[in-house]
Amino acid sequence: xxxxxxxxxxxxATHGHGDHWFGDNEFAERFGAPVxxxxxxxxxxxxxxxxxxxxxxxxxxxxxxxAPVTAVTVPDNALDLEGHALHLVEVGHTDTEQTSVLxxxxxxxxxxxxxxxxxxxxxxxxSAGGGLxxxxxxxxxxxxxxxxxxxxxxxxxxxxxxxxRVIAGTRRYLDSAETALKECSTATEFFRxxxxxxxxxxxxxxxxxxxxxALYALREPGADPVAASVAAWx
Length: 234
Hints:
five-stranded mixed β-sheet; 8 helices; 17% strand
């Protein structure tokens, strides 16, 4: 950014999954800009820090920098960039709890984090007990912003960011997953069914498999949601 004469005013975290913010403090130090998030996202960030010894650090030992939660909220969840309004819009549950998107009205743009996916298999491992319906409600919240462009956190590099297509594709995948969950009795069967039904999606199969393992583990009597989510990665 500095090499292009741009001033970085903030680093925005849309949700609490560690892979989306564990490196933010290094950017904050380099550019002298705060890490910004909603209060709900900050709470989930703290939970991801607590989970590091059991999940993140086991998956990538020694590769993740020290990452205390330094994110702060901003008044009305709004930023001003050279006279242009940027809004952190809370959308609730998507692929984790208490997520948000960044809305740039002047550009008709939504930076969606993981609220929308674009040409990729989706992580639904935290969507038991009504999570798919909650995710659909989140999509409707984004749609009500009438964006023209949506930048998804998980996307195919070969696809554009057309908002109408991205929204429709995400909804279609959630509907497909809901049907498959009713039809399939095991995580393996669910995974194979989703791959077969979406042959155009080459990216994200690992997330699909991990999510399937978590969801089907939760079908066992007395299953613990946190333990199921962590164990699904191993």
